């Protein structure tokens, strides 16, 4: 085994039996440890760190399996390779997502006291039932279809009709082009809530993105990690009927009317995945930076079209009040001051905090979605702390760390094959033009 992978830093929950449980995992995978050293955490008393050295006879594959076992079964909170570089655990294949989708920060039935549905037991029970369906979902299975009640469909209808009146005027060109395709292929209409499976099937065909049900709010790291595999985690429950135009957390209205349409646009899909790939193995500080980019672009981004501002961010496209406000700079009630508009500069946006309980006081504007894609790509390649690069394989839905000459040579061959293909195609186009 390479010396680069002989040492691990394991973060364990501070509870009785945690160390024994993790050591048993190494034994289960036939891995011998030559050193175990405790390292109290400087950040939290809730966890404890252990530095372990692995016998050089252990294979990298066995070590990876042991780490995955510890993480997925809750025996360790974090595992890092130590040596010439640090390489933390992160999902390497799309099915690895099955683990963290169960680790939601807030489940569907757990509502804060100020939530519109907090005192409605029937609503809370309904949300819990829908959330439990998501908890049991695994990659590759059909997404369960929810039989929405008339009350739920009515809530959807109120929001749908209000927003679709505004889209022609305030949504970006790509959104208005794609929306009829979702009406035709995914059942988008006022009368009933679309099913995630239908949306998923269409997205897979056009950009390769998948929808996956989730029980509630994921951590920022887990949500972004999913984007690396072109997986978008979506709730299936809907906001409370008493406040159809307000929700304190993402619901099926936000996930479908806000996000799904734009994920069918190639540029939007690509920079969504770029942020996701950058999140794999990223430091906590870099996760915070990527979350801010996500917020200012994918949630509240504006684009210039013929000297007018149009929305492409999901937070705007699913909020009729802020959709109009962001594009016109005017609040209908005259209570909110005009917002500030800035050209999108990723290095600036990544460090800028934002409010979550009221309209944004500032919006970043891009010249086009393609330019946004290039700006985000430049940021993720040059402005993060990560010391390694990952590559996504769309054929196997896996990611690989480019950490050896052999992998780089293989990548070079792929690039050369594509260049040869382009050269051949250009030659045929030129020949065809000469014959006309």
TrEMBL record:
Alphabetical list of SUPFAM superfamilies matching this protein: ACT-like, Aromatic aminoacid monoxygenases, catalytic and oligomerization domains
Entry keyword Transferase: no
EC numbers on record: 1.14.16.1
PROSITE patterns: ACT, BH4_AAA_HYDROXYL_2
Binding site for Fe cation: 254, 259, 299
UniProt keyword annotation of Metal-binding present: yes
GO MF annotation list: iron ion binding; phenylalanine 4-monooxygenase activity
Database matches in Pfam families: Biopterin_H
Domain Biopterin-dependent aromatic amino acid hydroxylase family profile span(s) in chain numbering: 75-430
Domain of life: Eukaryota
Key words, A-Z: Iron, Metal-binding, Monooxygenase, Oxidoreductase
Cofactor(s) required, per the database record: Fe(2+)
InterPro entries: ACT-like_dom_sf, ACT_dom, ArAA_hydroxylase, ArAA_hydroxylase_sf, Aro-AA_hydroxylase_C_sf, Aromatic-AA_hydroxylase_C, Tyrosine_3-monooxygenase-like
Record domain ACT: where: 7-84
Assigned protein family: Belongs to the biopterin-dependent aromatic amino acid hydroxylase family.
Protein name in UniProt: phenylalanine 4-monooxygenase
Protein species of origin: Naegleria gruberi
